[in-house]
Amino acid sequence: MKQRMLLLISITITASPLTSHVNAFSIVRSVPALRHESSSRKLHPSKSSPEHAIKNATHVEFDFHSDEIRDILIEQQSLAPPSARRARCKRKIELTWCNHGSCMDAIREQVVGEHNHMALVGPATGQVVYSWEKFSSQTAISNGENVASPPAVLFLVKRDEKELSEVAADVIAKLIGVGVQVLVDTTFAEELQSFPDINMDSDMIRMFDPKPVPGFGTGGQLNTSMNEINVKNSGDEYHDYSSAADLSDPDLIVTLGGDGLLMYASHVFSGPVPPILPVAGGSMGFLTPFAREEMLDAILISLGLQQVTDMESELQDNMNGFRITQRANNNMLVEDISRESYSEKPSLAFGRNGQICISMRMRLDCRIFGGDGTLRARYNVLNEVVIDRGSSPYLASLECFCDDVHLTTVQADGIIFATPTGSTAYSMAAGGSVVHPAVPSILVTPICPHVLSFRSMIFPDHVVLRCYVPSDARSTACVYFDGKHRTELQRGDSVQIEMSAHPVPTINRADHSSDWLSSLKRNFNFNTRVRQNPLR
Q: Alpha-carbon torsion 39, 45, 51, 55, what sign?
């Protein structure tokens, strides 16, 4: 008879990660599986009662007491119905996800069949889609509910680009005409004053003043209480107990520029981030799939103010074998997608049936601790955290841990901790893997290590990584967060890195895979070569 056991899957969750650490919490074996003094010794078939089986079992070498095992087995077998005792049916395994003493049913893992077969009922991740709830102001008023405020759009436009300012001003004027509020910062507001179609005194235009998020940054801002951001209830689930959303908070962020503007939006919104519509206006545009010519329609569809029917989507998907794409030079070009060797499945139309595909771009919650354990700084990063030797001529010396288990001793120019979004940035240049943005993971890539065996690694999103400068290091180190906030690490200082509770949701033009693969091919010429001629 096979060993029978009860498994409890124990995980450490930081803001509900999508992966978990599986741990054998406890194992209980039935009597036939226990080790006896002689392997040839067998229990007599006629004496198969639980009491007799326990008496014939020898001492078991377990960490817990054998008396407890006997009591458990006798109780379980005595409570079983007579038919079950005759058939000797197996006990069932139960899978559970546990977090700090609180457990819930497993989401993906299930036990199937009578033989305790473990199976996955679905993938760990998928395409995230959002849609707006149908709201009736008449129904809300009759029920005594609050009436929904007009949607608000925050515009972040690349500075010192007159052409982009003109495009943004034209779209803003049309949005105000349909009753959409517009939020702008002080710099862009000064530029809008030169456009006659924009009335800066209108109630539909508001100034956006970025407010520091309590608990992030350095100094007094860092020491602000975190109770208004993430508070756990008795079930250890994360909730936002902050005050009601201010009317000036945007429902949508539009970035008209390059990837750096998207990084700026991530920096401004250290906490929760509204959906971001990235419109190309920079030099490369790896993360900006939308063209400026389609910005107005994309905004209206993203706000649920313009519907795309199935008939319209079919017309967009079957446009004589052509698709409009955004090239690196920011001009709308027509690419022929027909291939003689294969047929490419057309991508979904943007906003079909009111559903908008988004990429939940994971961020890293990074904290700097002093040698005495005090928290010095905290940042949310979208791309990567880099710890290097700075201006020192010596190699960086770091001790790195994963969930308080020693990972490695770093002797290199530095080390990179990247998100899937940052896997195509500094990490890729240093030899790291390219990771799909929907894969919940943390990349660890060394920078010019002193040993060839130190290679890039990928960890699940639930782990907590920590690196500190040892006391015998030849020099200090420096840490950068998305290329900013340079901080010198003294001996004894450490950097803790884990998954952030607040991702950056960016709107997809098609879906997360199509946009990502198109960017790889368009910007990096990913695996582009002349096709071999067939054999004749």
A: negative
Question: pTM of this prediction?
Answer: 0.76
What is the spatial distance between Cα 448 and Cα 414, in angstroms, rounded to a whole number?
7
3-state SS, residue 468: strand
**Helices H / strands E in the chain, number of each:** 12, 28
pLDDT of residue 150: 86
The residue type of 313 is: S
For the chain, give percent helix, strand, coil, nearest 5.
20, 30, 50
pLDDT at 214: 81
Predicted confidence at residue 306, as pLDDT, reads 86
Residue 241 pLDDT = 34
Residue with the two structure tokens 């680009």: 161
* Cα dist from 527 to 335, 339, 437, 467, whole Å: 18, 17, 19, 35
Confidence of residue 89 (pLDDT cuts 50, 70, 90): low
Q: How confident is the model at residue 19 (pLDDT cuts 50, 70, 90)?
A: low
Q: DSSP secondary structure string, 344-407?
A: PPPPPPTTBTT-EEEEEE--EEEEEE-TTS-EEEEEEESSEEEEE-TT-SSPEEEEEEETTEEE
